[in-house]
Amino acid sequence: GVASGDESSAIGIGNRASGEYSAALGAYGVAKGRGSLAVSTFFQVEGSPADYDLDLDGDGINETNSHAAIATGDSAVAVGTSAWAKGNSATAVGVGNTTEGDRSGTFGFGNSTVMRESNAIGYDNHVVSGEGGAQAFGGSNRASDGNAFGFNNNVAVGNAFGNNNTVTVDYAAIRPARNGATHSAINRRP
Predict the structure, then answer these.
(1) Is 175 left (phi over 0), alpha (psi -120 to 50) or beta?
(2) Cα dihedral sign for 164, 147, 81, 14?
(3) 53-99 confidence digits (pLDDT tens)
(4) Residues 175 and 167 sit within 8 Å (Cβ to Cβ)
(5) Where are the beta strands (DSSP E) in 18-90?
(6) What is the pLDDT of residue 49?
(7) Are 106 and 119 contacting, i.e. CB atoms less than 8 angstroms apart?
(8) pTM for the whole structure
(9) Cα separations (Å) of 165 from 60, 169, 171?
């Protein structure tokens, strides 16, 4: 590995720690943000080279592989395969997680956040836009300015709990997973 940042460390195969006080461990991890940490469990098909297919700074030169753990935000933490912590104080843990928002986190498989202070935890959950502070927990949820808990919920503004709910105004939608009850909404404002 290469540790080019002041007081940085790179341990393992092909790791790069260019941020000041950063550390990259494992295989092909990148710790670019100040005080960032990348622990990469890079997966490569046996016999194929570790292709650099990702340009991190827009200079037209690919610096790393998209299957690595990459921490580009200051004080960011990326752990896993294809885990990317872009925001400052962001955390991406697992496989295929991307955390763009500052002080946000993704945990599990295939989750993403784009806004600040948001979390996506589970499988295929996405916080896609909005003011920040949205949460998506469970599987295949989408949240903008609200919270989605369960499976396959879509929330623009408000909260959804259970399965297959869509909330577009400031209401809470609740659909129990087991009894097949019909959709019910609870108005949060008088």
Answers:
(1) beta
(2) positive
(3) 888 888 898 888 888 999 999 999 999 999 999 999 999 999 999 99
(4) no
(5) 23-27, 30-31, 37-41, 70-71, 77-81, 84-85
(6) 60
(7) yes
(8) 0.84
(9) 43, 12, 11
- How many Å apart are CA 48 and CA 142, to the nearest integer? 35
Q: Kindly tell me the burial class for residue 129, based on how many C-beta atoms sit within 10 Å of its own C-beta (0-12, 13-18, 19 or more).
A: middle
Amino acid found at 84: W
| Interatomic CA distance for residues 143 and 176, integer angstroms | 19
Q: Which of 39, 143, 150, 56 is nearest to 95 (CA)?
A: 39
Mean pLDDT across 105-122: 95
Residue type for 164, please?
N
pLDDT digits (tens, 9 = 90+) for 141-167: 999 988 999 999 999 888 888 899 888
Span between the terminal Cα atoms of the chain, in Å: 59
Q: Tokens in use for 109? A: 């498989």
